[in-house]
Amino acid sequence: MKEESTKGVRELLVVEDDLRVAESLERGLREAGFSVRLAARLSEADHQLAQGTPSLVVLDLNLPDGDGRTWLRRVRREGHRMPVVILTARDTLPERVAGLEEGADDYLTKPFAFAELLARIRARLRAAIAQADDDVLRVGDLEIDRLRRLVRRAGKPVELTAREFDVLALLAQWRGQPVSRDLLAREVWKVNRRLTPLDNVIDVHLSHLREKIDRDQPGKLIQTVRGVGFRLAEENP
Amino acid sequence: MSFKFRSRTFLYLLVLLGLFVGSQALTYTAVEYAHRVANPYESFREGIEEVLQATGLTVLLLVPLTAAAWWIARRITRPLHAVAATAKRIRGGRWNERIETTTMPDDETKVLAETLNAAFDGYAGALRRLERFSGDAAHQLRTPIAAMRNLGEVSLSRARTAEEYREALETMLGELDRLTRIVEQLLQLSRLEAGALKARFAPIPLWSVVEQVKQIYQPAAEARGVKLVAEVETPGPAVAGIEELLIQLLGNLVDNALRHSPDGGTVRIQSGARPEGGVRLAVTDSGPGIPDEFAQKIFERFEQVPGGETGTAGLGLPLAAQIAAVHGGELKLANPGQPGARFECRLPALAR
């Protein structure tokens, strides 16, 4: 996690009425280094906003005292500019469009992988403070030049296919954290893995990447996190 | 019952109408006749007799007129009563019952009955699909839930090492992933059935769908030692549709074909215009083929051909078939019982 540097913008407001979901989000986000305020109702969310604008809001749409989208529209009108990530169990296309039109910056359908929520939150915060990632990413002695699409391991160039490079670049972008298969499928292949079978394809790419990057190297950088996805990191101490 | 009341009113009206028309006509004829006949003689008695005769005739005619009106009213209302009675039974839960129309004469009542029957068919179909959906879903969700539950219980039954706990959690997440996928697929199936996607249709060239799917699955095919071949007409025909769904359709067919082809086999994707009109998208594997008795079943939810690889919920082909249907086409197994299963999807060509 040492590469993580979202500098100061670390306070989140989580608006979620399901206690178990709220608690596990709070715990996960705290462990990821955020400070978290919880609101189980829109009225509580208003109260929390009055206490000070958070860096980002995680908003559930179905709340006991109203529709999160209506609330969001009002809050935007009142001039709150912080990024908002919507969580919802409803995922029809019109809903999605409506959510984004009402001022949400991102949209995640339940059930989602926690790693993915974390990734979205970090991406939004980074966008909010307009701090672009470096073109060249480094993990151990692995170098990934995203601009020129070149990869080196211990100074030696590694030849990758276009898709292999995309997979590696995505893993490198979230270095240190697991990247889910769903996210890989969506970002690299542009398909919904839950509907288009893609597991074999992903496995083949990962095994090719291991072959090209980790083979004959003392430290293995590509790790499988069973049940979650894959992670690019120096081996765990 | 308001229905009965209405039919009786109708009957009374008919009788009154019959009486009125009949007596009017008779009185008129009688008066006319009386006038002509009586004029030369100007006999008052004869005039009276004529009127009396006319009245007698009216009374005589009243009986058959009433009978006829009653008979007509019965004829009209009897089938309506039958329709109402059947509809009432259907509403009461006998969803398979229909109004008997074969014995009905070709009239408005038959048209009404047939229209109602068609509506009942539609509702019953939707209801059956809904019942099947929830039944299938519940059944299919049980397995991963049971697996997770057992794993959780066993894991907690005594103290374990951190490594064991980790493994248990990892397995649970794997099961949850399966569960999530099943739920998502079932939801998509019902969304596709609901329709209303036509508004998002755009012209999609078939070759581009084939090309994208081939690129996605090529490395997986190579890893399995299977040759993935595309025979495409370029530029070739286009269809009106949603690209994402068409890729999903073909992706499911190709994934299925790869899983059923042996090392050294070939999976062939073909696309182009059909000489009979429309376009064709076909995927052929080099596996053992699908027995006759499964040719239809494989498109039903959660059905699997015995001996096939497991790990899929059996929703891929039903989804593909539903996507074909949404695009106004159909997906079929072209060669049941023969080696090298060939799935053929026919779609309407884009009107130029």
Characterize the main sheet of chain A: 5 strands, parallel
Classify the helix fraction of chain A into a percent range: 25-40%
* C-alpha end-to-end distance of chain B: 58 Å
Q: What would you call the quaternary organization?
A: heterodimer
Question: H/E series of chain B, N to C?
Answer: HHHHEHEEHEEHEE
Task: Tally the helices of chain B.
Answer: 7
Brief account:
The complex is a heterodimer of chains A (237) and B (352). Helices cover 39% and strands 22% of the residues of chain A. Chain A is of the alpha/beta class.
Secondary structure: elements and pairs:
The complex is a heterodimer of chains A (about 240) and B (about 350).
Chain A: E1 11-15, H1 19-31, E2 35-39, H2 42-50, E3 56-60, E4 62-63, E5 66-67, H3 68-77, E6 84-88, H4 93-101, E7 106-109, H5 114-128, E8 136-139, E9 142-145, E10 150-153, E11 156-158, H6 162-173, E12 179-180, H7 181-189, H8 199-213, E13 222-225, E14 229-232
Parallel strand pairs in A: 1-2, 1-3, 3-6, 6-7
Antiparallel strand pairs in A: 4-5, 8-9, 9-10, 10-11, 12-14, 13-14
Helix pairs in contact in A: 6-7, 6-8
Chain B: H1 2-41, H2 44-91, H3 108-156, H4 162-194, E1 202-205, H5 206-224, E2 227-232, E3 238-241, H6 243-259, E4 266-273, E5 279-284, H7 316-326, E6 330-333, E7 342-347
Parallel strand pairs in B: 2-4
Antiparallel strand pairs in B: 1-3, 4-5, 5-7, 6-7
Helix pairs in contact in B: 1-2, 2-3, 3-4, 4-7, 5-6, 6-7
